[in-house]
Design goal:
This protein has four domains: 213 residues, Glutamine Phosphoribosylpyrophosphate, subunit 1, domain 1 (4-Layer Sandwich); 223 residues, HUPs (Rossmann fold, 3-Layer(aba) Sandwich); 97 residues, no CATH class; 80 residues, no CATH class. The protein is 45% helix and 15% strand. It has a six-stranded antiparallel β-sheet, with helices on one face. β6 and β7 form a beta hairpin.
């Protein structure tokens, strides 16, 4: 896989030998470019598919600026034309050289100037200054860093830092609590104590022993009035697809059968003379299988369609490989089909177009925003919500009875989220969504319930969070929740899942919905074209989300796909777990969390497993959260981040 890495420090051994150590976890298949000088060294590996042409290293003409770059920039002809008008000349055509020129012209502001999914490091020899840059959305590309005595070490993959410097196994307890609380770990934390991650749209500067992180790119919502939103969206989307197809011999597409990926494929097919190669997952379980819709789109668009059947719970045996690739645990178990689909697609193409982003950019969580806006106007609403919810610890007495009644239905759980939305700030209102996803059948604030007494007391003191600063200007509740969704479940949830799983198989993934041009347009689109419906529809959760996309898809995507209920990229995790859980208790299923970390209240977890086995409640998401954390501990805390040669079955049988 491709990646960038480097080290800076007056007393550090920064020779190419150190870079070789950092390169090792990326594999030996690619080509390495390296550059070094007095007290610094940087390297980049690109896989030899001929696609990752942007990934590389470059100097400016007078050897005062060196850059390493991974990822891709789009619309580069226009960028080069603008730079030439500024007096820059180009010796070659590589995107790494282009990035150096962009740095000279714009500095960190280049993050706002370019279209692409990228990570880059810039070394300036005269001020002896390192700058790390990450695109506006993150997830598909990453950058991590750690202090190194009087220097700093950085890499796109955490494993590269571990390979060069080792790791004493310390777990960042604040990050651990975040993960258990709502399923995500926000920057700058990682689970690795002392190793941090750069937020999307930010630049990190290291100079004279000082590290500063500056926010460069922010969302700015300024709704406008227009009578042709759909046509404008179609135009900017077609431009994004055209730019992402340019310069590549063959680009395939993930096709789930949902609207997002179907609109991708329909637009690609209208621009391509040859049939587009499409890839989808099928399941024997009808409740999860959308292959009928993906085949319908494939026939409609006359694609060269390829289908992967996941018909066995044995796919879970590869969980250690998936967690090693993710580097941090995950609550969204759709990383399992994504891992398998990426490997399948790589047998046919080197680049795949994916359909992630519209749900986040178009306000999928409008019910919570609506509840917060509506209930917030009612006198005493926040006081009542606080009274009903208590302090978020284990519920007793009448609160426990109330919650047992609420949790029986989706509407009841939504009422709890609505109460949460007015009991706290906007960030806590948003995070209530993911607490409900993970703990839907348990108690409010269940992270306290699943922890052992000693760990519960210790970790609950670390729950303070700061709202991500990816938004500027005056914003209403709807767009405020949208911005949080892009930053949290986007950059460190869905996008990261796709980016990590495809990179593991050296498959380049492109995300047209994350194109800055589309984002800039959607910042101007009013609510009614993002979510469409009456106030009654909002109350009943029946308003149409992604309305502008549905309107744009009419006539080019089969009507049956447009009107079908949204399903998402799911997997039959309950059925798969039934084959693996057996009669295992918490100690057998989660040996690291129970026996080594002593993290969990074993009695509570055993009751939860029994309820899941007896189908009283579906706890699949929470079980997966704990399993991936358990495996993460085995791979990284015990195994020093080395690629596991063992399977999940080996782990459960204590053969790992």
């Amino acid at each position: 896989m491709d990646g960038i890495f480097g080290i800076v420090g007056p007393n550090a051994d920064v020779g190419r030998e150190r870079l070789s150590e950092m390169r090792r976890p990326l594999g030996e298949e690619g080509t390495v470019d390296a550059a070094s000088g007095n007290g610094w060294a940087m390297g980049v590996q690109r896989f030899d598919s001929g696609v990752a042409a942007g990934t590389g290293a470059a100097w400016n003409e007078d050897k005062t600026v060196c850059g390493v770059f991974m990822g891709e920039l789009f619309g580069t002809d226009a960028l080069r034309g603008e730079l030439r008008r500024k007096g820059h000349s180009f010796a070659g055509g590589g995107q790494s050289e282009l990035m150096v020129h962009l740095w000279e012209a714009y500095g960190p502001e280049l993050i706002k100037k370019v279209k692409g999914l990228f990570a880059a490091a810039i070394w300036e020899t005269k001020p002896q200054r390192l700058t790390l840059l990450l695109d506006w959305v993150g997830g598909i590309r990453h950058l991590h860093y750690a202090p190194l005595g009087e220097g700093i070490i950085f890499a796109s993959e955490i494993r590269s830092i571990l390979a060069a410097e080792g790791w004493e196994g310390g777990i960042d307890e604040r990050a651990l609590y975040q993960y258990l609380d709502f399923g995500h770990i926000l920057p700058p934390e990682t689970l690795f104590k002392g190793i941090h991650k750069l937020p999307p749209g930010c630049a990190l500067t290291y100079e004279n022993g000082s590290t500063q992180v500056q926010r460069i790119s922010r969302l700015r919502f300024e709704p406008e009035t227009s009578d042709n939103w759909v046509e404008r969206f179609q135009d900017v989307f077609q431009q994004a697809i055209t730019e992402q197809l340019a310069g590549s011999k063959e680009v395939g597409a993930f096709l789930s059968g949902g609207l997002d990926s179907s609109f991708n494929v329909a637009t690609m097919s209208s621009l391509n003379e040859a049939p587009v190669k499409t890839f989808s997952v099928a399941y024997p379980q009808q409740a999860f299988d959308e292959s009928r819709y993906s085949r319908l789109v494939a026939r409609h668009c006359k694609t060269d369609h390829h289908e992967l059947l996941l018909d066995s719970a044995e796919v879970l045996d590869e969980l250690p490989q998936m967690i090693w690739a993710l580097e941090e645990p995950a609550m969204d178990y759709s990383f399992i089909p994504t891992f398998n689909l990426a490997r399948f697609a790589k047998q046919h193409v080197d680049v795949a177009i994916s359909g992630d982003g519209p749900d986040h950019l178009l306000g999928r969580h409008y019910p919570v925003a609506f509840a917060r806006k509506t209930l917030g106007k009612m006198p005493g609403a926040s006081l009542l919500a606080g009274l009903l919810l208590g302090d978020g610890r284990r519920a007793h007495g009448w609160r426990a009875l109330l919650w047992r009644r609420l949790r029986r239905s989706k509407r009841g759980r939504f009422l709890w989220k609505a109460l949460q939305s007015v009991a706290g700030d906007r960030l806590q209102a948003y995070l209530a969504i993911y607490r409900e996803v993970a703990y839907r059948g348990l108690l409010p604030g269940s992270v306290s319930a699943i922890l052992s007494d000693s760990m519960g007391e210790k970790l609950s003191q670390l729950s303070k969070l700061v709202e991500p600063d990816n938004i500027e200007g005056k914003v209403d509740e709807f767009n405020g929740i949208l911005a949080l969704d892009v930053a949290i479940n986007g950059g460190f949830g869905v996008f990261a899942k796709v980016g990590k799983m495809t990179a593991h198989h050296s498959l380049t993934v492109r995300e047209p919905y994350l194109d800055p041009g589309i984002c800039a347009l959607l910042e101007k689109v009013p609510h009614s074209f993002k979510v469409n419906g009456s106030k009654l529809d909002y109350v009943r959760k029946q308003a149409r989300t992604k309305y502008i996309l549905y309107e744009a898809a009419k006539g080019i995507v089969p009507a049956e796909v447009i009107t079908k209920p949204k399903q998402g990229f799911q997997a039959p995790i309950r059925m798969w777990f039934e084959e693996w859980l057996g009669n295992r208790d918490s100690r057998a299923l989660l040996p690291a969390l129970t026996q080594e970390m002593q993290l969990l209240d074993e009695s509570f977890v055993n009751n939860m497993l029994d309820a899941h086995r007896s189908r009283q409640c579906d706890h699949g998401t929470l079980i997966m959260m704990l399993i991936t954390l358990d495996l993460w501990y085995g791979i990284f805390a015990k195994g020093n981040g080395n690629r596991p040669t063992w399977t999940w079955r080996d782990w459960l049988e204590q053969k790992a």
